[in-house]
Amino acid sequence: MTVSRRNFLKLSAAACAIPVVSACSGHRTMRRDGVPRSEFNAKSTAEEVTAGLDLSGKVVLVTGCTSGIGFETMRVLAMRGASVIGTSRTLEKARAAMRRVDGTTVPLQLELSDFESVVKCAESVRSLHSSLDVLVCNAGFLGGSQHRSLISGVEKHFVVNHLGHFVLVNRLLDRLSDSRQGRVVVVASGMAYSDAPASGIQFDDLTLAQGYRDRRAYAHSKLANVLFSLELSRRLRGSRATSNSLHPGMINTEIDRHMNRFMQFGFRIFAGVFGKTIEEGAATSCFVSTNPLLNMTSGKYFENCNAVSISGDHHMQDEAMAARLWRVSEDLTKDYLVARDVPEIGSMARQG
Q: What's the pLDDT tens digit per position in 240-282?
């Protein structure tokens, strides 16, 4: 086979991007017992998994709504009748995204690295509605440098991808519990089990000073997403609210905007060949957010619109680590949290 210089460069770039997007090496996904099985798969789109649903009267908050799967999630849920609150780092970008959507939408500013901004956003949500049906923790940060960036002494990926959403959920949890069936949906990544540190959350080194790499830092924050959702589901037992996490798939979105041009090129080539479209990537978020099959499902991890278990060594279901992460997260953000009781409705059996 003859390979042109241009094709060689494309293949080389894609090969360089593989470590950034690797998600399953050494692991295998298996159907999660005890959770309703859906008919959908990796090729299903967000419109397909919500077909026939009437979300009129539902209030949904989607963080990171201006592009990629966040925008598609907002667009489709609004199309199905939900009132969607969409956030962006700037109000101008949020408003611009809303103008491209048919349905009821409200733009809000949210900078997840700034906890004061998170508090302000949460209070704006509270002023708009008496309840909140779905909170999709979608916004994420992936750096493009091999140099660490710290926020108040904590590694930036961990702050933006985990702690910012931790504060947001805390400030809105009672509104979710007041809903007929509130849902917290945490967009994580398969890198939580394929690329996170072997020992799990680095409680003694949240700066990630030892062996820093962007890929490792991102995966570390995504493991925190999964464990946060797991512990939240435990704390919600007996209430009407649920919490689940998911891997959307490998998608060519603007999350690569901080990479250098060579890595962006490789990522996009690789994602274009082996990944999902944005419409397919938003499917699992929309499914977990809305499908009636999951009314009683909590504390699970989803890929391709189905709950899965992961083989091999990882910390995805480490309840002790999840509980410790919660305590550490509370300590790191205590000045921005509120104490609110989650109302119980008696003993509710959770599937799975």
A: 999 999 999 988 655 545 445 545 444 455 445 457 999 999 9
Q: Decide if 59 is inside a domain.
A: yes
Please give the positions annotated as active site: 212
For residue 333, what are its two tokens? 């953000």
Q: Report yes or no: 203 and 169 within 8 Å, Cβ to Cβ.
A: no
Q: What is the 3-state secondary structure (H, E, C) of 117-129?
A: HHHHHHHHHHHHC
Q: What's the whole-model pTM score? A: 0.87
As a whole-number percent, the residues of the chain with pLDDT over 70 amount to 84
Residue 212 domain flag: yes
- CATH number, domain of 130, equals 3.40.50.720
Contacts of 159 (CB under 8 A, 6+ apart): 112, 113, 151, 152
CA-to-CA distance for 191 and 193, rounded, in angstroms?
5
Residue range of the domain that includes 282: 25-336
- 87 pairs with which residues across the strands? 108
- Give yes or no for a contact between 69 and 282, defined as CB atoms under 8 angstroms apart: yes
146, part of any domain:
yes
Q: Which of helix, strand or coil describes residue 69?
A: helix
pLDDT at 13 over 50: no
Please count the structural domains in the chain: 1
